[in-house]
Amino acid sequence: MKTIIVDDERLARNELKRLLEDFPKINVVAEAANADEAIELINEHNPDLLFLDIQMPGKNGFELLETIEDKVPEVIFTTAYDEYALKAFEYNALDYIMKPIDTARLAEAIQKVEHEMKRTETISPESFLGEHDQVFVKDGEKCWFVKLGKVRLFESMGNYVRLHFEDQKPMILKSLNSLEERLDPKVFFRANRKHIINLHWIEKIEPWFSGGLLVTLQGGTTEKIEISRRQSIKFKDLMSL
């Protein structure tokens, strides 16, 4: 697993690298002392996993995750502060480790990552959910049995995903990453860190900032979704002859 360590303390980075030497599946490809360095390295290496400190000069760990344009890697937070644990899991963190890091606790966190990786590898194209599949959605007291082709947009809301279909916007307890793994990529496209769009609902496409695109979706209220620069390249390849 390609891994990046993000921590403003050099000694903390060195100690974590030393501990990770006992885990041959973890390949530390880079390290960063702040969020700005980390963003450049994430764009360069496209890592599978981040070990991420929370309190750092400049942007903190949460603000770093907010600035990632596309799919966020799996995240294990490493911090000396326990008051951020609840917020960490709102960002779909796989684990939250307190400093100083204990080897047994680190092994437990890495086991979670390996389990998640194995789970995603076992998903075959035959198991993708397509536009003709129907899914049961329950939000509070309301229930729907909706055909996925009617869902024009999936929007990340922390540990939840909001489905946009007709004039309804129910939420389900699922991360956008895990949902993306189940959806047919020929129909449902990851536009950016927060959105998956149904390609059949696109009404208009416009050039946008920094090489990105802005798509307008059909629907009761016209939604405009930005496709990030990196995803725009994939989008153009997907939609070209």
TrEMBL record:
<dbReference type="Pfam" id="PF04397">
    <property type="entry name" value="LytTR"/>
</dbReference>
<dbReference type="Pfam" id="PF00072">
    <property type="entry name" value="Response_reg"/>
</dbReference>
<protein>
    <submittedName>
        <fullName>Two component transcriptional regulator, LytTR family</fullName>
    </submittedName>
</protein>
<keyword id="KW-0597">Phosphoprotein</keyword>
<dbReference type="InterPro" id="IPR001789">
    <property type="entry name" value="Sig_transdc_resp-reg_receiver"/>
</dbReference>
<feature type="modified residue" description="4-aspartylphosphate">
    <location>
        <position position="53"/>
    </location>
</feature>
<dbReference type="InterPro" id="IPR046947">
    <property type="entry name" value="LytR-like"/>
</dbReference>
<feature type="domain" description="Response regulatory">
    <location>
        <begin position="2"/>
        <end position="114"/>
    </location>
</feature>
<dbReference type="GO" id="GO:0003677">
    <property type="term" value="F:DNA binding"/>
</dbReference>
<dbReference type="GO" id="GO:0000156">
    <property type="term" value="F:phosphorelay response regulator activity"/>
</dbReference>
<feature type="domain" description="HTH LytTR-type">
    <location>
        <begin position="137"/>
        <end position="241"/>
    </location>
</feature>
<dbReference type="InterPro" id="IPR007492">
    <property type="entry name" value="LytTR_DNA-bd_dom"/>
</dbReference>
<dbReference type="InterPro" id="IPR011006">
    <property type="entry name" value="CheY-like_superfamily"/>
</dbReference>
